[in-house]
């Protein structure tokens, strides 16, 4: 009990040191996990976390899914750093060259591409038939020779290296296939039937690889992501986000999601979908349809990890895009209520970002202190890092409370 008390006091002292002047806008009293129903799955996750910290377990996996809040990288990257500082540096997560889809990259890595690619966004319509999507939420098809280069540590800080890498994708036939090189040396792969992926054992630990896609005339290859593998013990944190994604996009349009979830078998899922579902007037938003979409998504998660813990992250107070500009999003209360009901139904937790911000019209105060961008929808870089710190602290505080 003394150790727990000392740890709790140290965390409080650190939290006070970490609070910047702009933190006056934060409702710290609301930054906690709430369990409207049972909490058995969350406590089981904490037991795994204990085992990991006591070297009785090699890894635990967290999957964070959302829209643009996750795609940008600042939010999930900060959360991954916090968990890995706390309980060990596991895997980096999935990667995809998002410039192929005409959208912004995660700037913590460098990915280059060559060749002609067709990479329609999951969340946008396309005149051509779309490829199948997997856990990254992105897919790119090449009909001729092409290549992708990856540097996972572009600033050479020694933060990330890997000794294996998994390539996700599929082809029209065996005539189209990827060839992976490290330092000019071609690497052999094994085919993983369960996940329909190419697993490469590398000749040395590295931070960079190159992939050449061999695609004869009349064939094609569809690339859906990379999974660098370090083999390290610790927390594996995977972020999957696509600009504009609604719950229905992940539940109904990502055909290979359930298959790809076998690659991570999440112990904890952080659901941050709702901001795009509710970007409409109050009469148009349907809580019942919203919850039905989540049930379909949860069904896919439970098919792979039936006992995983789940935490719903409520919407931020925000504006929404409308013709000619931005208008206030009036549905954050409805989304929160729906998430509370889902949490009760599935014995899951809720972290109330809407409440932490101060609820209705609090977005203006967060804008003033630089935590929200000018569109009053997305957070700034420091804003994303702050909410990542807050949810991490809420989880660890809840974990500590189970020990009292």
Question: Would you mind describing this structure in some detail?
Answer:
The chain has two domains: 10-91 and 232-401, Rossmann fold (3-Layer(aba) Sandwich), CATH 3.40.50; 98-229, Sandwich (Jelly Rolls), CATH 2.60.120.260. The chain has eleven helices and 19 strands. It has helices at residues 2-18, 40-53, 68-71, 74-87, 247-253, 257-261, 287-304, 332-346, 353-357, 363-368, 381-401, and strands at residues 33-34, 59-66, 110-114, 117-118, 140-142, 146-151, 162-171, 177-182, 185-187, 189-192, 197-206, 208-214, 221-229, 234-241, 268-272, 309-313, 319-322, 325-328, 349-351. A six-stranded mixed sheet has the order 1-19-16-15-2-14, with helices on both faces. The chain has a six-stranded antiparallel sheet with strand order 4-5-13-7-11-10, with no helix packed on it. A five-stranded antiparallel sheet has the order 3-6-12-8-9, with no helix packed on it. Helix 4 (74-87) runs parallel beside helix 11. The chain is globular. Residues 1-10 have low confidence and may be disordered.
Biggest sheet overview: 6 strands, mixed
Please state the average pLDDT score: 94
How are helices and strands ordered from N to C? HEHEHHEEEEEEEEEEEEHHEHEEEHEHHH
Instruction: Name the overall outline.
Output: globular
Q: Which architecture of the largest domain does the CATH hierarchy give at level 2?
A: 3-Layer(aba) Sandwich
Query: What structural class should be given to the helix and strand makeup?
Result: alpha+beta
CATH class of the largest domain: Alpha Beta
Percent strand equals 25-35%
Helix content: 25-40%
**Oligomeric grouping of the chains:** single chain
Q: Which regions are unreliable across 5 or more consecutive residues at pLDDT < 50?
A: 1-10
CATH fold name of the largest domain: Rossmann fold
In the residues, how many domains can be counted?
2
Rg calc: 21 Å
Distance between the termini: 7 Å
Tell me the strand order in the biggest sheet: 1-19-16-15-2-14
Query: CATH superfamily assignment of the largest domain?
Result: SGNH hydrolase
Count the strands?
Answer: 19
Number of helices: 11
């Amino acid at each position: 009990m003394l150790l727990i008390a000392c740890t709790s006091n140290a965390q409080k002292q650190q939290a006070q040191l970490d609070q910047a002047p702009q933190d006056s806008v934060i409702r710290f009293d609301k930054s906690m996990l709430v369990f409207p129903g049972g909490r058995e799955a969350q406590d089981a996750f904490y037991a795994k976390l204990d085992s990991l910290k006591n070297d009785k377990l090699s890894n635990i996996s967290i999957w964070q899914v959302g829209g643009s809040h996750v795609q940008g990288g600042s939010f999930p990257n900060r959360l991954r750093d916090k968990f890995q500082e706390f309980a060990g540096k596991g895997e980096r997560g999935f990667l995809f060259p998002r410039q192929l889809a005409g959208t912004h990259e995660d700037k913590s890595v460098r990915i280059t591409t060559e060749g002609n690619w067709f990479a329609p966004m999951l969340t946008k319509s396309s005149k051509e038939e779309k490829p199948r999507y997997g856990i990254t939420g992105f897919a790119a098809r090449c009909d001729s020779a092409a290549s992708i280069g990856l540097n996972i540590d572009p600033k050479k800080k020694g933060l990330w290296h890997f000794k294996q890498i998994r390539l996700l994708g599929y082809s029209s036939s065996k005539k189209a296939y990827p060839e992976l090189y490290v330092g000019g040396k071609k690497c052999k792969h094994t085919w993983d039937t369960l996940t329909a992926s190419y697993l490469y054992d590398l000749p040395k630990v590295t931070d960079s690889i190159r992939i050449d896609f061999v695609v004869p005339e009349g064939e094609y290859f569809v690339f859906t992501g990379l999974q660098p593998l370090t083999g390290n013990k610790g927390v594996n944190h995977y972020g999957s986000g696509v600009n504009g994604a609604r719950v229905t996009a992940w539940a109904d349009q990502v055909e290979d999601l359930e298959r790809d979830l076998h690659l991570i078998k999440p112990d904890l899922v952080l659901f941050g979908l709702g901001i795009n579902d509710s970007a409409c007037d109050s009469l148009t938003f349907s809580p019942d349809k919203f919850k039905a979409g989540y049930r379909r998504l949860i069904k896919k998660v439970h098919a792979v990890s039936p006992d995983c813990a789940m935490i719903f992250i409520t919407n931020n107070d925000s504006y929404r895009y409308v013709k000619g500009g931005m208008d206030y999003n009036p549905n954050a209360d409805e989304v929160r209520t729906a998430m509370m009901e889902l949490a009760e139904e599935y014995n899951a937790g809720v972290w109330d970002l809407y409440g932490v911000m101060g609820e209705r019209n609090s977005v203006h105060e967060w804008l003033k202190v630089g935590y929200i961008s000018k569109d009053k929808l997305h957070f700034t870089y420091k804003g994303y890092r702050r909410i990542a710190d807050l949810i991490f602290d809420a989880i660890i505080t809840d974990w500590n409370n189970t020990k009292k």
